[in-house]
Design goal:
Structural class: alpha/beta
Order of helices and strands: EHEHEHEHEHEHEHEHEHEH
Strand order of the largest sheet: 1-5-4-2-3
Shape: globular
Strand content: 5-15%
Helix content: 25-40%
Number of strands: 10
């Protein structure tokens, strides 16, 4: 990333509540290497268990991705579980309210990583949570220590304080189409947004009035966040203005968390429509837009 603080510590934050800011949301491999022995540090690896077993950052624990989402109503694929279930899942990995949490991904799993970040943010632990810029590939490329050892875990105790300003629903999106100050952003690839490609079993196109910031356009070839100025320009090009609320969606609520994360990083008020296109498309009475020149292709 072009500008990532070599943070020495996160600013003081309450045990629960609020959101992170640009000073602590992203940390470098150098920062993490210097803090591996911090008493309250919890490093969570997101992605492939096989990759984790082969090699991981010393002290890191593997987070099963399916432990932090649930099937939603009407069969929706990825929804936020109950707070108690999330407290149990993270507590088993040693997370407590005073933990300093660093998330990293294997391979190209950035959007899974940001889904985990959003989940912790919804629990009120966002101010204590960071993402390792570039994940495990960058850690390895810098020649830093890896291990196959799995450390002993003392179960943590979490008292979540659910944040009401992270997840939003279909009713909110439907009532805010083309609403000044509310920017609905489709985080899917451009061919899905335009309607050139149709997701299997879903309708073509996008939510009317939505702009498109493809999730994979927010990182560089190393998987690091792009420089702040480049990200700000992407958001401006999508019509997002200072003071706007950014509401992201995607296929099922994973890719959209990258737009959510970057929106928070840039200082925007952000929400994620968890039902995403999966839910919107299922309601035949709701409108959809396609690009005038789109030629539909099968998925």
């Amino acid at each position: 990333m072009g500008i990532v603080m070599a943070a020495t510590a996160l600013p003081a934050a309450p045990p629960c509540g609020g959101h992170g800011d640009r000073g602590g949301m992203v940390v470098t491999a150098a920062w993490l290497a210097d803090h591996l022995k911090d008493r309250n540090l919890v490093i969570l690896a997101v992605g492939s268990k096989q990759d984790y077993d082969t090699a991981h950052i010393p002290g890191a624990l593997f987070l099963p991705y399916d432990s932090i989402y649930a099937k939603g109503h009407d069969g929706l694929s990825v929804e936020l579980p109950a707070m108690g279930d999330l407290a149990s899942a993270f507590g088993k990995l040693g997370v407590s309210n005073d933990s300093r949490i660093v998330l990293y991904f294997n391979g190209n799993g950035f959007s899974q990583n940001t889904r985990v970040y959003l989940t912790l943010d919804a629990m009120g632990l966002g101010p204590h949570t960071s993402i390792l810029d570039g994940g495990f590939p960058v850690w390895q490329s810098e020649g830093r220590a890896v291990t196959t050892e799995v450390r002993h875990v003392t179960e943590g105790k979490i008292e979540p304080c659910a944040q009401s300003d992270v997840i939003t629903d279909l009713a909110f999106v439907r009532s805010n189409l083309n609403h000044p100050g509310v920017d609905i952003v489709d985080a899917r690839l451009a061919e899905f947004y335009s309607g050139v490609r149709i997701p299997q079993g879903k309708r073509a196109g996008h939510i009317p009035g939505a702009s498109n910031i493809a999730f994979n356009s927010l990182v560089d070839e190393q998987g690091k966040l792009k420089p702040r100025a480049a990200l700000e320009e992407q958001f401006r090009a999508a019509g997002i203005k200072s003071g706007d609320r950014v509401v992201s969606y995607c296929h099922i609520g994973q890719q959209a968390t990258m737009v959510y994360f970057v929106a928070r990083y840039l200082g925007y008020d952000a929400r994620m429509f968890d039902g995403s296109w999966e839910e919107w498309s299922a309601h035949a009475e709701l409108p959809a837009e396609t690009s005038p020149t789109a030629t539909h292709a099968k998925p």
